[in-house]
Amino acid sequence: MLSGHERGVNAVSFSPDGTRVASAADDGTVRLWGTDGTGEPVILGGNESWMSAVSFSPDGTFVAGAGDDGAVRVWPTDGTGEASIFRGHEGWVWGVSFSPDGTCVVSAGDDGTVRLWRSDGTDEPLIFYGHEGKVCHASFSADGTRVVSAGQDGTVRLWYADSLGEPVVLRGHKSSVLVATFCPDGRRVVAAADDGTIGLWPADGVAGPLILRGHDRRVFAASFSPDGTRVVSAAGGGKVQVWRAFASEHALIEAARASLPRQLTDAQRAKYHLPPRSL
Fold first, then answer.
1. Does residue 92 belong to any structural domain of this protein?
2. Percent of residues, the chain, with pLDDT higher than 70
3. What is the pTM of this model?
4. 225 shares a domain with 115
C-alpha cells in the first residue's frame, strides 16, 4: 500500500516502464511512488487546491497534472526544477494526457474546451470548441493525429490534432460521457457514461454506436485490450466487466479479414477467437 496523501486521491497513472505510479489528490500534490513500495515518494506541487488529473509522458521523464485552479502543470519526474504552468482554462481541468511523441499535452476543461499545449511551453494552445458543458476527458489516438473528448453534453468528439477540418461528433449516450478512448488501431472509439452504459463507435462516424448494457451504476472507465477484441469497464459498486468489442461473430470475422487479408494460420484464428481450420 502506498500512503501519504493527506486527502482523497482522484487519479493515478503508471509510468511507461511500470516502475512508478503517479497520484493526484485533494491535498494539492502529485506524488510519484516506486511500485515496489520502497523509498519515499517524489512530491510535486503543494500550492494547488485540488488535483484531479495526472499523466506520464511517453518517455517517463515528465508528468502532467491539473486541478480546480484551471492550470495544467508539467514537472520533471526526477523532482528537480520548477513546473511549466499552462493557463487558459476557466474552472476545473478534469483530464490531461500527453501525445504519443511527448511533444504536446491535451487538457479537458470545465469551460467546455479542449486545449492542446506544446509540452515545452512554446506557442499558444490550440483551442477546440463545441462541447456544451464541461469536458470530462480527452486523449490522443495512438498515431497522435487525433484527439477524442468526452462531454457532459452526452457527446464524444473526434478532433484533428492540427485543428484542420471539422470534428466528428458521436452521439448515442443519454447522459454525461465520463471517458472516451481510441482503439489501438484508431478505427473505433469506446466511451463510458454516467447512465451505466458503454458505447462503441467506428471512428469515422458513419454508423451509430453499439451500446453495451450491464452496469447498474455510472461507468468511470473503459478501454480496449491491446488487440482491440475486448473492452474492459469499471463502474460504481466495485464492478469490472470485460466485453467482446464486436456486435456479432460476423463483424469479428470481417475485422479479422480486414486486418489479415489472407489465409489465417491456426494461431491467427485463435487470436480472433475463431475455430481451427478443418483438416
1. yes
2. 87
3. 0.84
4. yes
